[in-house]
Write the structure tokens for this entry.
Amino acid sequence: MWTINLRAQLDGWLAFLLVLLLWTGVAGFYTPEQLPSPLDVLKAFPELWEADMLGKHILVSMGRFLTAYGLAVVIGIPLGLWMGWVTRARQALDPIIQFLRPISPIAWFPLAVLWFGIGNAPAVFIIFLAAFFPVVVTTVSAVRQVNPLYLKVAYDFGAGPLMVFRQVVLPAAFPQMMNGLHIAVGTAWIHLVAGEMLGAQSGLGYFIVDSRNFLRTDWIIAGMIMVGAIGLIINRLMRTAERWIYRQWGQEAGSHE
Amino acid sequence: MNNVKKVSPEAELDPRSRDLVFQMRGVSKSFPTPEGPLRLVLDDVNLDIQQGEFVCLLGPSGCGKTTVMNLLARFITPTSGTLLVHGEPLVAPNPKHVTIFQEHGLFPWRTVIDNVAFGVQAQGASKSDAREKAIKYLELVGLQEVATLFPHQLSGGMRQRVAIARALAVEPEVIFMDEPFSALDAFTRYRLQDEMLRIWQDQKTTIIFVTHDIDEAVYLGQKVVVMAPNPGRIEMVLPMNIARPCERTDSQFLYYRREIFKAFQLVHEWAPEYAI
Ligand SMILES: Nc1ncnc2c1ncn2[C@@H]1O[C@H](COP(=O)(O)OP(=O)(O)O)[C@@H](O)[C@H]1O
Ligand SMILES: [Mg+2]
């Protein structure tokens, strides 16, 4: 077990190193404005840090992300529970959800600017949309997939509808809902950069666009690396939480990584 | 439903009707088939079940055992005929009549003790009262040690004992058990059968126990209801005159076992595909 794990990790690092070498080699043929070398990008970090150009954007991005994601959870979970549990609610609302879902959140951008002006709101709106649909859809299916035997047992003991919903449906659906929250974190983070590139005057997305105006390709790549690293950390945290819940519920870990 | 009084003449004629927990008179049940026409699943079932009786419904799969149980539990209603519960027709499901399913149906997110407490809470007890009851009945099935574990940490036999404790904790009048031990290995099954007998003698609960295992039916049932398929019906009702618990090698046990084998042999002539 241990040796296999070590091997897998070693291979990962080796491949990473190979990509860096390749990148360095290719960068030799271009100017730093076209493609900086990995070392150039590395040197950009302390520079950006001292000028406080990266940190403040990261904070702004995190704030937007948490606001939008939080809103998506606070609205999406109750809506999904309602649609999952009440057949008529599902029949009424599911067509609308299914119709809106395939529209990329980016396509909403012109409307978002018309409605909310520029600044925080359009970006938050786009991230919200990116998280909202996966949350609703997985919550609905989580509720519908609750093992009917649990409901049968609960009703058999004479449990009322409120107790069945709160003590059986909610906990039974919880692991799969958590899986939805995990997926939504990913899609929301991906759309954060897009949302900030289009309208915002701050945040990681804005920083990447703005760096292009200065022709600082090393800053662009540094910004991209930050987006990737933070996304990875958030994803890992969600995965840990999800695994813990699955273990607690005595189920196999979700297939979604 | 409650103000519909439909007392059949036969039932009124039976002076014992109020001492009987269940009376089925000419009960039939049909289900719609995917092709459209109704299919007769139970034909003319007549059965009395007394307070405190341990009744086994025995027969090959598909003969309508679960359907009889679902009728008695009032999960479904008869297509025709009369079903009386304490002499009353058409009553709603009673929370003091509880069912133990083959797949136990324990809640994986609750600890053992909170699983057992669930039913008590569902019937209006406070959380602390429910837990007190839960501990009492976990002790009865010998599982007080694992009270704080989760179901997935237990063996199959232990899970089924938790399910039994959960049912007992509401101090039920009737327990329905639908092939509760059929997923367990033989040794665990024997142990749980003994435990069930002990609990029954201790609690005096009426138990309706569905099984397709002849030995299990003879070992447990005061009365074995032998059923046959196509259409589902009661072939015979055999009272077992055996002191409980008995040895599986007792001559009396073997006698009744042979009687039931003979009963099924009788069935074979009519429907050879249901050979044991
Ligand atoms: N809800 C239902 N709808 C249609 N057919 C059913 C339903 N429940 C049971 N049946 C049919 O009735 C017959 C008897 O079923 P069941 O009572 O479950 O038998 P057993 O428990 O003895 O195996 C089977 O053929 C089954 O397919
Ligand atoms: Mg059955």
